[in-house]
Amino acid sequence: MASSDSAGRDLPAARAAAAVNDLIEVREGAMRLKGMLQEQSSGFAELMDGILNKLSSALSALDTGCTAGASASGASDGVIRARAESSTGRTRKRSFSRRLERSSGKRVTDTLVDGHIWRKYGQKEIQNSTHPRSYYRCTHKSDQGCNAKRQVQICETHPIKYAVTYYGEHTCKAPSNTPMIIVPASGDRADNLVSFAPTLPQLLPATTQLSSSWCTSVDDVFSSSSDPFVQADELAVIVGSAGKTSSTVGSVPDYSGSGIGDMARGGTGSFASSPSSLGFVVGSLGSIVDDDFFQFDP
DNA sequence: ATGATTTGACCCTT
DNA sequence: AAGGGTCAAATCAT
Fold first, then answer.
1. What's the mean per-residue pLDDT of chain A?
2. Is residue A82 part of a domain?
3. Full residue range of the structural domain in which residue A219 is found
C-alpha cells in the first residue's frame, strides 16, 4: 500500500539517510580527534567544538526531516495481521512487519557494544554461513518507538570479530544519537566536564571486559581499533545508557562454543542489574546535566 | 515477578 | 520454493 508513494519519496529519503550516516561518521571522527587534540591545545579543542556544533546542528536538522518520513513509512509499514495456529494447537495473532530501512553498511568489529542498548529478537542459521545471524532491535522500541535494528554475525574470515549491519536510525534518546557535548569554550567548564574521568577507571578498570563494554564508543566499534583511551564523550555514552536503562544493558548473540558468547553470558558483557553502580555514574553527572553540559535536542 | 533470550513457526521477498 | 526477517510462546536469568 505504501509502495507507490514510497517510490516517490524513496530517493530523497535515501539520500538524506546516506547524508545522515556520513555526518554521523564524520562527527564521531571529529569527536575522537577532539579528544586527541584536547590534550595538545585548548585552541584545537575550541575549533573541534565548533565543528562538532555545526555537525550536530546539521544532524538535528536532517533528523527531523528524516524521522518524519521514516515514521510515516514505518507506521504504514505494510503491517499484515494474520492468525495462525501453531503445531502445539495454540491460536495466536500475529502482526508482521517488513524492514524497509536501508542498511547503513556492514561493519566488522571486535565488540558488540556501540553505546546503544539492544534487545535480541531472533537468530537464524544462514545459508553458506558457518555462524548464525542474530537480530537485534533497539531496546527503546517499545517506550520510544525507536526503529533502529542491527544484525550480528560472526565474521567468516576472522571468527573473533563480528560483522554488524545496522538498519534504521536511532530515534531514541540514546547518547550516541544525540548531539554530544556542546561545551562553551570556557576552560573551567570544559575541565569540569572531563574532571570526573579519572574516577571512572577506579570504578571500571579499563583492562576488564566490563569496562571495555561500558566504555566502548561508536568509533571503537566501527573502526575496530583498539585505542584504549577513554574520552569524555564516551563517558557520556555510559551515563546516557545508565540513565535510560533500568535493566539489562548489553546483549550478545548466543555463539556458544565460539568462546565469544561466553564472555557476555558469563556476566562480564552482560551486566544485567547493577543499578547501584550505574547510579554512581549517573549521580556524579547529575549536576553536570543540570548545568546544561549535555544538550539533548527535543 | 519481571524482563531478556531462545527457538520454532510464520510470512515476505526474490 | 528457498532463504531470510520477524513474531511470540516458552524458557531462562535476575
1. 51
2. no
3. 3-74+98-290
CA of A60 to C1' of C9 (A): 40
For A46: left if phi > 0, alpha if psi spans -120 to 50, otherwise beta; the answer is alpha
* A251 CB less than 7 Å from any atom of strand B: yes
Measured from the Cβ of residue A30, the count of other Cβ atoms closer than 10 Å reads: 20
Q: Within window 124-143 on A, which residues have Cβ closer than 7 Å to strand B?
A: 124, 134, 139
Helix (H, G, I), strand (E, B), or coil: what is residue A222?
helix
Cβ of residue A95 near strand B, that is under 7 Å?
no
Answer yes or no: is A26 within a domain. Answer: yes
Residue A231 located in a structural domain = yes
Task: Give the torsion sign (CA, A21, A25, A26, A30).
Answer: positive
Q: What is the distance between the alpha carbons of residues A97 and A20, in angstroms, rounded to a whole number?
A: 24
**Residue A141 grid cell:** 522500541
- Grid coordinates given for A131: 555462524
Total domains in the fold of chain A: 1
Answer whether 0.85 is exceeded by the pTM: no
User: Of the spans A11-20, A65-74, A115-124, which averages the highest pLDDT?
Assistant: A115-124
